[in-house]
Specification:
The complex is a heterotrimer of chains A (454), B (158) and C (765). Chain A is an alpha/beta fold and 454 residues long. Chain A is built from 19 helices and nine strands. The chains are: A alpha/beta (454), B alpha+beta (158), C alpha/beta (765).
């Protein structure tokens, strides 16, 4: 069965990133080259100094697409010039619930990623790059490896690329199922063969990253932006987006909509409401109850905030984060308590265990949700969820633990009445449709008793 | 044994990392070991530890941390169905219940004939094509009860 | 000190060296910020989040780069938006730390509540109860109630053997990783790791053998809860029932400071040692001991300890009174005239050896030590040993550590830890010359090999080459660690002399942190040598005849005497033959069985005295246990025998004897019990508060000891190279096999917990 990712939602006349939608088979080397492929790479190697590449990316205002939104060119400029070797590490651990954009880039437009990696490596003068893909990207990794092999075969990678004297090797490294490895220092630990747990900062990866050497870590989508920026210039790029959030961004839309998929849009041009419309509107036209702008990590935005513009600043002003722009749409058929539990379960499952508040807090919180969802909750348990989240907030080692508080705190903030109603309606173990999943997870006893699961 | 049977693959993996950083190869080597043994058996762990020159405890720790390394034998086909929120909003929970009934096992278990292991997993980055699963790490998109039945039939025959 | 950084903590100004962590800076002014994962001997990880504090920095004007000031002229402090871990944050100039705010108080309470949600609270049956940081910090900073539903508690396995010496209680573990980090960073034996993740994360070992490090016991000390316990101590006593006595380990030349924890046992009719714990001495063992030191204590209350004097009657040894036995020994000595030889074992205290030597000198007899080989080079080690104020912690970048013919991990385990850190963490260069591989080899910059037995020849032949190749003249310091395996006395002496010559040739002789470090067999090899050789010299200078001043290096075991008096020599093979043999021992050894009189001696735990470590530190040990049966201290026995021969010395005890010793042994002049009993606050402070350990056993109140100066230090002008010749190896030398830590012997045999670890003598290779 083919691993090719097939979302074909047309949102722009000409895509910058999802070019597979415009150009069939652009994942093939020849097709990619016929459509400006590797032109930026040739331009940089033959006409630009490394610093010029950094500067054009700086000028473009490209911000990291992994979630934090840090300006990519500025990040590259932190890399010390005089320490070798250096590394470029690509974060393709795409694991935020509701995120599937990198998946499509790797499957549909892999050469653009490779070219972006190459440009970044040249800019910081790194001769080795590792693309860390989540373990579940076993098939996309094959597609990407094929593309890397083609690039080597055509002299775009390897020794003395295009006679420039610059050497570059790109390797794929597969993870094995751990959300935390999307955190950049955990990713580095994982790549070094250590436990995928985050490390202390400082030292920052720019100074002591992979193998304690200067390392740039960028997300797949971020680097896919680089070839068109280098080819067409910063001003061309800035025709899209806003002053503070330039360029286009892929918005993953999932959940209760008719046409879930990836939508590439200029930042700041459209609203959440318009995005939902592009995604075919909600199923059966039901009213939206809430939206998670960045998967489970983002505080939920209730329906009254659907006119929020799609850029980093506006979403933040509305009380959430744009992050990886993974919009999970919840309509009025969705039980908020159930949805919140799903998200808390995710964080409990993915907590690396390193720090106390995340390890113990997610465990405790899930126990409380289990109690409520199985019909034994009290109002005190609802308060306790807020307490546990508050107790975790601001004390965790990395952002995973902090993110874990989002579904708890934001659903309590906007939908506390739903919690209260749920408890009132399900008193004494009265269940609705959740029995099967609670048995499966060992919360309730099934015919065979309680299943023991981690 | 791995060293003899998969010498070329091991050499290819080791070549990706600096010679003094062999430990970086632990995960790719565990995948190779898992292909050979079906799971990360004690023997496999010791072999990988020897190849990368570290203590078996350290390799065991890596195996335990990641969900895609199996510490117990699994079925010939490992079916990982996502039941995380985005998929669950599109019927994943009901779908898993169907899978359980169809296979006669609970998620997390293996059929008595050793053919299928059914797991529920967290988000696998294909939420727009839910319900979604991976069978031995290969995606199966937009699954229905009917397509699941067909898939099982095909796999049972192979 | 130019590198001092000024900050305030809760309004108290403090100046600390650059690079100090906030948690340590606070400790300096007795502000104990609570911690679980942080340990001053390990690298900070910031995992437990217990040490969260509020940290602010002076606000800097970006234009002027000067601190911004308010209307009153005070520097404006910008506090971090979130609390920060004090254990991972280094101090910086002008930093303001707040540890007493409501936010910090609440954070501590929150973290403790989290930790307790998964903790079984089985304190009533927990070995750590009473000295448990989790208990103590909960009392100090924890919530008064638990809101966690008890039924939702996470349960896990409770008695998991990680090897045969350490057990893990998975429920009690709070995932601080101190044990993992100790094994990784200090012991370099990576047999512990985390497994799984999140709430499922737990400690495992998957090594073969499993948790079998020589240093594993230390993990139970630094474990901040009762998760790790030793097979030896678990469920044996409650910490608060234990009496603590300051003592010394007797098993190797390091001289580790230990605390003996004893308890009154009705079944054995008296106090017995329940456990051995490290006692802090940053000059010697920091806060570590090896497992041999920890577990080889059961001999002190072994059933078969000698409790009664015995004399041979009609061919059989029968019990006798002290009066009868001493009378007999006195008579035989009188009759023997000068044909008397005494051999003193190298675990005997200085005071005992001194009185034995004093008596032998009075009798014009011969005296030797057992084992005899170290007597051939102990004077060289003393002349060119490390400086009086040397500390292995000083060694680092620019220094060279040369290990010749020694297996540091097996022969002086704690030196292995400390030298390894000097090399791996601080950048000292390690050069090894040996006929075989040792664990230390993995850290070596250069490795040299020679055939077994050829160590001295190798040094004699290759010194110049070595000096050039390893740039020894350019080294900041040159520390030379050496052992005597597979060498006979003359070869061992030649080795020590060759190495001393190396120090002289490279300009390192007499320097503070340079010199020789001999891997002696036991805790008082140097001391016994000093005392009996010193007594010899005293006798010689008094004009006594030459036989009395017999060179310690001549093998007295080759001669035959009328009376041989063997004091604590164990199963020594170098005992002289005699018409009448007196053995002073703890056990009925093979030699004792052949003896004419057997005198029961007290062990180190039942009396006080001093030892002189391999690096010449003279230290005190104290009485932890009451005397056993009729056994007596060796010094008392010597004095009583002397009395039967008409010498009334009238020594009241070891302190009295030591005063006399220090007066007559030149190297010990200036030393006294008062001097070596002095203690002072050490860094890091281990015994105070509950930061790193919840009890008081680390406290050093018994004294840090004192090292006497080397000859090269005292008299630099008198330094002369030795004649560099080295003899050919001999069979006798080659037969002196390597000595593994757990080699079989009278003492280790009586610790059942180590039974499976003992290396039988014939397997030593």
């Amino acid at each position: 069965m083919s691993g090719f990712y097939g979302t074909k939602n047309k949102t722009m006349e000409r895509h910058v990133l999802l070019r597979d939608v415009d150009v069939p088979n652009i994942r093939e080397y020849d097709v990619y080259v016929a459509n400006d492929g590797y032109a930026a790479w040739k331009k940089a190697l033959t006409t630009m100094k490394p610093d010029e590449v950094i500067n054009v990316v700086k000028d473009s205002g490209l911000r990291g697409r992994g979630g934090a939104g840090f300006p990519a060119g500025v990040k590259w400029s932190f890399i010390p010039k005089d320490i070798f070797p250096k590394y470029v590490v690509v974060n393709g651990d795409e694991s935020e619930a509701g995120t599937f954009k990198d998946h499509q880039i790797i499957d549909g437009n892999p050469h653009q990623l490779i070219e972006g990696v190459a440009l970044c490596a040249y800019a910081v003068q790194a001769n080795t790059s590792y693309i860390y893909l989540r373990g579940e990207f076993y098939e996309p990794a094959k597609t990407l490896q094929r593309a890397i092999d083609e690039a080597y075969a055509h002299g775009m990678l390897g020794k003395n690329v295009l006679g420039s004297g610059f050497d570059l090797d790109i390797h794929i490294h597969l993870g094995a199922g751990a959300y935390i490895c999307g955190e950049e220092t955990a990713l580095l630990s994982s790549l070094e063969g250590q436990l995928g747990q985050p490390r202390l900062r400082p030292p920052f990866p720019a100074v002591q990253g992979l193998y304690a050497k200067p390392t740039v870590i960028n997300n797949v989508e971020t680097l896919a932006n680089v070839p068109p920026i280098v080819l067409h210039g910063a001003q061309w790029y800035r025709q899209y987006g806003t002053e503070k959030s330039p360029g286009t961004k892929i918005f993953c839309v999932s959940g209760r909509v008719n046409k879930p998929g990836n939508y590439e849009l200029p930042l700041g041009k459209y609203t959440i409401r318009e995005l939902i419309e592009m995604a075919g509107g909600t199923m059966d036209g039901r009213p939206v109850k809430g939206v998670l702008p960045a998967g489970s990590s983002a505080p939920i935005l209730p329906a009254n905030l659907l006119d929020t513009k799609l850029d980093y600043e506006s979403v933040q002003a509305a009380g959430s984060i744009l992050g990886s722009a993974s919009f999970v749409i919840l309509d009025d058929t969705v039980d908020i308590v159930w949805a919140a539990r799903k998200m808390v379960r995710f964080f409990k499952h993915e907590s690396c265990g390193k720090c106390t508040p995340c390890r113990e807090g997610t465990y405790w919180a899930l126990k409380l949700y289990d109690k409520i969802l199985s019909g034994h909750g009290t109002l005190a348990d609802v308060d306790m969820i807020g307490e546990v989240a508050g107790q975790m907030a601001g004390k965790c080692f990395c952002l995973l633990g902090e993110f874990a508080t989002s579904p708890m705190q934001s659903t309590l903030k906007h939908f506390r009445a739903e919690y209260e109603a749920f408890i009132a309606n399900h008193q004494g173990g009265k269940m609705n449709g959740y029995t099967d999943e609670l048995i499966r997870e060992g919360v309730l006893a099934g015919p065979e008793g309680v299943i023991t699961r981690h | 044994m791995l060293r003899e049977k998969r010498a070329a693959d091991i050499a290819q993996v080791l070549a990706k990392y600096p010679p003094e950083r062999k430990r970086s190869a632990v995960m790719p080597l565990l995948y190779i070991a898992q292909e050979e043994y079906g799971y990360c058996s004690d023997e496999a762990i010791r072999e990988v530890a020897e190849i990368i020159g570290c203590d078996p405890t350290e390799v065991k720790s890596i195996v335990g941390f990641y969900t895609m390394f199996y510490e117990q034998p699994v079925g010939r086909y490992v079916i990982d169905v996502c039941d995380d929120l985005p998929c669950a909003l599109r019927g994943a929970d009901k779908f898993v219940t169907y899978c359980e009934k169809r296979l006669g096992i609970r998620a997390g278990q293996t059929t008595p004939d050793g053919k299928f292991t059914l797991n529920t997993v967290m988000c696998i980055a294909a939420c727009d094509r839910a319900p979604v699963a991976q069978v031995n790490r290969e995606y199966r998109y937009e699954l229905t009860e009917e397509s699941f039945d067909r898939m099982l039939d095909e796999l049972s025959q192979s | 000190m130019a590198d001092l950084v000024n900050l305030t903590i809760d309004g108290v100004p403090v100046s600390v060296p650059k690079g100090t962590l906030v948690v340590d800076a606070a400790k300096k002014i007795e502000n104990d910020i609570p911690v679980f994962c942080y340990h001053p001997k390990l690298k900070p990880v910031g995992m437990c989040r217990m040490c969260l504090v509020d940290i602010g920095m002076p606000k800097i004007d970006p234009a002027t780069k000067q601190p911004v000031r308010d209307e009153q002229g005070n520097v404006v402090i910008a506090f971090m938006p979130k609390l920060t871990t004090a254990c991972t944050t280094p101090v910086s100039e002008g930093m303001v730390v707040r540890t007493a705010t409501e936010q910090v108080r609440a954070a501590r309470e929150d973290i403790l509540e989290f930790l307790l949600t998964s903790h079984p609270l089985d304190c009533p049956i927990c070995d750590k109860g009473g000295e448990c940081p989790l208990q103590n910090l909960t009392l100090g900073f924890g919530p008064s109630v638990s809101r966690f539903d008890y039924d939702a508690k996470f349960h896990n396995e409770k008695h998991v053997p990680l090897g045969d010496l350490i057990y893990l209680d998975r429920e009690r573990c709070i995932q601080c990783s101190r044990c993992i980090r100790f094994q990784d960073e200090i012991a370099d034996d990576h047999v512990l790791q985390f497994h799984d993740r999140g709430r499922g994360m737990e400690i495992i070992t998957f090594s073969d053998p499993p948790f079998d490090s020589y240093f594993g016991g230390n993990t139970t000390d630094i474990c901040p809860v009762g998760a790790l316990t030793t097979a030896d101590f678990r469920f044996k006593a409650r910490p608060w029932e234990l009496a603590s006595t300051q003592s010394l380990c007797t098993h190797c030349p390091v001289g580790c400071n230990i605390t003996l924890n004893t308890r009154l046992e009705t079944k054995s009719g008296g106090y017995e040692i329940k456990r051995v714990m490290p006692r802090q001495n940053e000059q010697v063992n920091e806060i570590w001991i090896c497992d041999k030191g920890r577990y080889v204590h059961h001999f002190t209350r072994a059933e078969d300890r000698l409790r009664q004097p015995m004399v041979r009657r009609d061919g059989r040894l029968v019990e006798a009174t002290w009066e009868q036995a001493l009378q007999l020994v006195g008579e035989r000595l009188k009759a023997a005239g000068t044909s008397v030889a005494a051999v003193v074992g190298d675990r005997i205290a200085n005071e005992d050896a001194y009185l034995v030597a004093k008596l032998v000198r009075a009798l014009n007899g011969a005296i030797g030590m057992s084992p005899s080989v170290p007597a051939h080079y102990a004077d060289v080690a003393r002349a060119f040993g490390v400086g009086a104020h040397a500390n292995l912690a000083h060694l680092g970048k620019g220094d060279v550590i040369l290990v010749v013919n020694g297996d540091v991990e097996e022969q002086a385990p704690v030196w292995f830890l400390r030298l390894r850190q000097a090399v791996v963490d601080r950048g000292a260069a390690l050069v090894i010359a040996h006929s075989r591989s040792t664990k230390m080899h993995r850290y070596a910059r250069a490795i040299h090999r020679y055939e077994p037995g050829y160590a001295a020849r190798w040094v004699a032949d290759r010194s110049e080459e070595l000096i050039a190749k390893e740039s020894l003249k350019d080294a900041r310091n040159l520390l030379i660690v050496f052992g005597d395996e597979q060498l006979d006395g003359p070869s061992a002496r030649a080795l020590a002399q060759g190495l001393a010559n190396l120090l002289i040739a490279t300009g390192h002789a007499g320097k503070a942190d340079s010199g020789l470090l001999p891997l002696y067999p036991h805790a008082n090899t140097q001391g016994v040598f000093d005392v009996i050789a010193g007594a010899d010299r005293a006798a010689a200078s008094n004009g006594a005849n030459g036989k009395v001043g017999a060179d310690l290096r001549s093998p007295i075991c080759d001669s035959r005497f009328e009376v041989a008096w063997l004091i604590g020599v164990g199963d020594a093979s170098d005992a002289p033959s005699a018409g009448f043999t007196v053995v002073q021992e703890l056990f009925m050894t093979a030699l004792a069985k052949q003896a004419d009189v057997v005198l029961p001696a007290l062990s180190f735990a039942e009396r006080e005295g001093t030892f002189t470590s391999g690096d010449r530190r003279v230290q005190r040990f104290y009485r932890a246990l009451p005397p056993l049966g009729e056994a007596r201290p060796d010094w008392w026995i010597a004095q009583e025998i002397a009395k039967r021969l008409g010498h009334s010395w009238g020594f009241q005890g070891p302190a009295h004897i030591f005063a006399d010793l220090a007066h007559s042994i030149p190297h010990y002049s200036g030393l006294s019990y008062e001097v070596i009993s002095k203690s002072e606050p050490q860094w890091p402070p281990m015994g105070r508060g509950d930061l790193y350990y919840g009890g008081t056993v680390y406290d050093n109140t018994g004294g840090l000891g004192a090292r006497y100066a080397s000859d090269a230090e005292r008299d630099p002008a008198g330094v002369r190279p030795y004649d560099g010749a080295a003899p050919e190896p001999t069979i006798a030398g080659l037969e002196r096999r390597p000595r593994p830590l757990y080699r079989d012997g009278e003492l280790i045999r009586r610790s059942a917990v180590l039974a499976s670890h003992i290396v039988p003598a014939q397997e030593v290779a």
